[in-house]
Amino acid sequence: MSERVHLYLRGAFWILVYLVVTLAPLFVLLLGPVPAGRGFWREFSVALGFSGLAMMCWQFALTARFQRVKAPYGSDIVYFFHRQISLVTFVLILAHPLILFVTLPETLQLLNVFTAPWRAQAGVTALLALIVLIAISVWRKKFKIHYDQWRVWHGVLATAAVALAMAHIVGVGHYVDTPWKRALWIGYGAIWVGLLAYVRIVKPWLELKRPYRVEQVTAERGNTWTLALRPEEHAGMTFKPGQFAWLTIWDSPFLDKEHPFSISSSAARPDRLEFTIKELGDFTARIKQVQPGQVVYLDGPHGAFSVDRHPHVAGYVFIVGGVGITPVMSMLRTLADRGDRRPLLLIYANKNWEAVTFREEIESLPNRLNLSVVHVLQEPPPDWKGETGFVTTDILRRYLPAEGRRYEHFICGPEPMMNAVEKHLSQLGVPLARFHSERFNLV
After folding, report:
1. pTM above the 0.85 mark?
2. Is 211-302 assigned to CATH 2.40.30.10?
3. Residue 224 CB neighbour total at 10 angstroms
4. Which architecture characterizes domain 311-438 according to CATH?
5. How do 295-302 and 244-248 pair as beta strands?
6. Which CATH architecture has domain 3-207?
7. Which of 195, 209, 241, 260 could bond 60 through an S-S bridge, CB–CB 3.0 to 4.6 Å?
8. What is the DSSP annotation of 233-260?
C-alpha cells in the first residue's frame, strides 16, 4: 500500500472517530426516555447544546498536537478546522438558550444572577466565557492582545466554559438520570481532564526530560538568525524535511510560552537541529540575544509539508518568498545529503538581493543537486537581469516543467503571495492535490 493511500485511510478513520464522539450525546438524547412535559423545541434546543458541548470537549484533542492524528492532514488543515468548527460550536451552543427564550419566555428569568438556580448560573457563565473566547480569538490583533497573553486566556476561558457547561448538565439532571447516560458524560469529562493533564503536565514534563543546548547563533541575510541546537544527553529528534517544532527559550515548558518554527537543517543529521528565524515581532527580535550554551526545549516534529510524503514523484517545485525558504532549505539539504538526482526547481521571491537568505548556499546547491534556481526581486539592483516584481502566472509558465502534473509543488511565504501562487497554479492546470502550502496560521 502506498504512503498516500495509507494517509487517506488514516484520515478517513479519524474523521469517522470525530463524527462518532461528537454525535454520541445526540443518540443518548434520542434513545432515552423523554422527561414528561417537555415539548419538541425544548428537546431540540437541548440536542443543539449537547452537540455543541461535545464539539467543545473534543476541541482540546484537535489542539493537543497528537502527531498520529494530525499526520494525514497537516497542522495547517487541523488548525483551520479547529477555527471553523469553533464558530459552528458557538452557534449551536448559543442556539440552545435562544430557542428556549423564544419558545418559553418564562425561561428569561434564568438570566437573573440573583434569583436563578446555580445550574442556570453555571450555564450562563459558560456561554459568557465562550463569547469572550470567540471575541478575543477572532479580533485578537484588533484588540492588540499579545500572542502569549492570548494563549493563556484561550486556555483559561475554554477550560472554564467546558467545566461550567458540564456542571450545568449535571445540575439540570434530566439527561444523567440513568447509569449509561452518566457513564457517557463521566467518560467525556474524564477524557477532557486527561487531555488537559496531557497538554499542561505530561508534555511539558517530557520536554524537560529532553532538553537541547544552543551550540551556535549565526546571522543570516534577510534579518534572520540561525539557532543550531544539540540534544542534551539524548538521541535528538527524528523528523521529515520541512517539518516544524515548537521552541521554548528563556522559560519553562510549563509556562506555555512556546513558538512554532520550521526546521531548516537536514533531516539526515538529526543530531544537530537548526532553526532560521526572521525578526518579525517581540519574541523573534530577541533571537540574536540567545547565547551558546543556553538550554532550550522542543515539542515536535509536526507538520505535513515535506517531500517525504511524496517519495515517488518525478520531481519537485518549490515556490517561496522571504523566510518561507526555511522549510524548503531543510528539504533541499536533505535531498542533497541523500544524493537525490531528480529534477528540482526553486522560485525564490525577495524584496532585494541583499535580503536573499541562504543566498550563497543556494548558489552552490546545483553542484550537489539537479536544481534550477529562479530569483524574483521586487527591488532589483541596476545590473539585474533576472525576474522582477512578484511571482506571476507568466513567470510560472516560463519556468514550470512541461510535465508539471507529475511534480509536487511546495509553496511557503507571506500569505498574500501563497494565495496568489495557488491561484496561478490552478490557472496553469496544476491539480489541487499537487501543490501544498505552509501557512503557520495557528490562531
Report:
1. no
2. yes
3. 24
4. 3-Layer(aba) Sandwich (3.40)
5. antiparallel
6. Up-down Bundle (1.20)
7. 195
8. SS------TT-EEEEE-SS-GGG---EE
Q: Where in the chain is the domain with CATH 3.40.50.80?
A: 311-438
pLDDT in tens, the chain (443 residues): 566 677 778 778 888 888 888 887 777 766 666 666 667 788 888 888 888 888 888 887 777 777 777 777 777 778 788 888 889 999 999 999 999 999 988 888 888 878 889 999 999 999 999 999 999 988 888 888 888 788 888 888 988 998 898 888 888 877 777 777 778 778 878 887 888 888 888 889 999 999 999 999 999 998 999 999 999 988 888 999 999 999 999 888 888 788 899 999 999 988 899 999 998 877 888 899 999 999 999 998 988 899 998 888 999 999 999 999 999 999 999 999 999 999 999 999 999 999 999 999 999 999 999 999 999 999 999 989 999 999 999 999 999 988 767 899 999 999 899 999 999 999 988 888 888 888 765 54
Please calculate the CA angle 70-75-81 and round it to the nearest 5 degrees.
90
- Beta 407-412 vs 435-438: how paired, if at all? parallel
Q: Are 334 and 268 in contact, with CB atoms under 8 Å apart?
A: yes
Outline which parts of the chain fall under CATH 1.20.120: 3-207
Residue with cell 529534477: 343
- In angstroms, rounded to a whole number, what is the distance separating the alpha carbons of residues 103 and 36? 17
| Amino acid at site 429 | G
Range list for CATH 2.40.30.10 in the chain: 211-302
Q: Report the distance separating Cα 268 and Cα 236, nearest Å.
A: 12
